[in-house]
Specification:
By secondary structure, the chain is an alpha/beta fold. The protein has 3 domains: 218 residues, HUPs (Rossmann fold), CATH 3.40.50; 71 residues, no CATH class; 73 residues, Structural Genomics Hypothetical 15.5 Kd Protein In mrcA-pckA Intergenic Region, Chain A (Roll). Helices cover 45% and strands 14% of the residues. The longest helix is centred in the middle third of the chain and has 17 residues.
Length: 399
């Protein structure tokens, strides 16, 4: 493969490359040295699941592994305790060290659904950031200014609206950039929303006497709501560890416009081929859903998910395999249970606020009866609760 062919692979499916000339020069140099490029991608374990939005970068990394480059997957267990302020117009809730460790525990198993484990170096940034002295931190801070930080759109908007910005949040992009210094990164990959942080890392590397990393940004994936960036925080994510039928069903629930956007983003990264016509939106989503399930599981799971979806949502039948939950006696008051608590106990809502939102939105059914009153109490001792595409049987515990 010649250099230009290799560069075309680097450019496939990306949003921006900074810069092509630097990439060409670095490739020539590494070829002469007989070394691969060191390609960094970092994820903060702020939630336990990796979702399809993350896989855009993972698929790009996989392409680069296949042409011989070294992937460094950084688990930001230290920076997760600060929280990435990118795109956030309020202070993030701080995570404890215990929460971060719990979230990070399954990350390797998840990323190796995409990446080649033998060609991936996994590192935790607490390894070097925990060792920084106060003097080291002050020296790092000297490499940036408040004016630079306020040039970021999200920080600037919060400043103009008089919304608090912690000094700690200013440290986040510096610490992310310092990771690149420690790892001697040749290339860093991230979403378009990470552009500021990735460019700051280039400046830090220059200041520390290193060649600045080449930056590759990739498009952001909109969530299942079709509006906001995919995120567990927005309850619009598709986790790659979710059951096959959940992944399939969530893809089928996408609007035609959102499904087309997924096709535009993922097809060049995965070289997928499709057989649907341009006008058949149902077939388009079905084939897309099967591709994802097959990638993360297998062909049989993809086919079974498609058949189950048809059975439940086209033919209006119950799923074959519905989980069951026994409602503890202490939750039952005078023979009734509050609908909000029922949703939480059956794991159909993660919080009371989410349960209330789902009820108000008309998404909650008990035995085919829709309920929209958040104060509703259910007195039936057993039944089936349905929220969207998810079902759960419940039964009151007996005295």
């Amino acid at each position: 493969m010649n250099l230009q062919q290799e560069i075309e692979i680097f450019k496939k499916g990306i949003a921006e490359l900074i810069s092509e000339q630097e990439l060409l020069s670095r490739l020539k140099k590494r070829r002469e040295e007989g070394k691969p490029l060191r390609v960094k991608y970092g994820v903060d374990p702020s939630a336990p699941d990796i979702h399809l939005g993350h896989t855009i970068s993972l698929y790009k990394l996989k392409q680069l592994q296949e042409i011989g480059h070294q992937v460094i997957f950084v688990i930001g267990d230290f920076t997760a305790q600060i929280g990435d302020p990118t795109g956030i117009l309020k202070k993030r809730k701080r995570l404890s060290e215990k929460e971060v460790k719990e979230n990070a525990s399954t990350y390797c198993q998840q990323v190796f659904k995409v990446l080649d484990e033998k060609k991936t170096e996994v590192v935790f940034n607490s390894k070097w950031l925990n060792k920084m002295s106060l003097g080291d931190l002050l020296s790092l801070c000297a490499h940036s200014t408040v004016a630079q930080m306020l040039a970021r759109a999200d920080f600037r908007e919060r400043f103009e609206k008089n919304i608090d910005i912690n000094i700690m949040e200013f440290l986040y992009p510096l610490l992310q950039g310092y990771d690149s210094v420690i790892l001697h990164t040749d290339i860093e990959i991230g979403g378009t929303d990470q552009r500021f942080n990735l460019l700051l890392a280039r400046e830090l590397q220059r200041d520390y006497g290193q060649e600045p990393q080449i930056v590759i940004t990739l498009p952001l994936l909109v969530g299942t709501d079709g509006k906001q960036k995919m995120s567990k925080s927005f309850n619009n994510a598709i986790g790659i560890n979710e059951p096959p039928r959940e992944i399939y069903g969530k893809i089928m629930s996408l609007s035609d416009e959102t499904a087309s956007e997924y096709l535009r983003i993922f097809t060049p990264l995965l070289d997928w081929k499709f057989s649907f016509s341009r006008i058949d939106s149902k077939q388009k989503k079905s084939e897309l859903a099967k591709k994802f399930v097959q990638y993360f599981y297998d062909e049989e799971s993809a086919q079974q998910s498609a058949e189950e979806f048809e059975r439940v949502f086209r033919e209006r039948k119950m799923p074959k395999d519905i989980p069951s939950v026994e409602i503890p006696r202490q939750e039952i008051k005078k023979g009734k249970i509050w609908l909000v608590r029922l949703l939480q106990i059956t794991n159909l809502a993660v919080s009371r606020s989410e349960a209330r939102r789902l009820i108000k939105a008309g998404a909650v059914f008990v035995d085919d009866m829709r309920y929209t009153d958040v104060n509703k109490e259910i007195e039936k001792e057993k039944g089936v609760v349905k929220v969207g595409r998810r079902f759960c049987r419940y039964i009151f515990a007996q005295e």
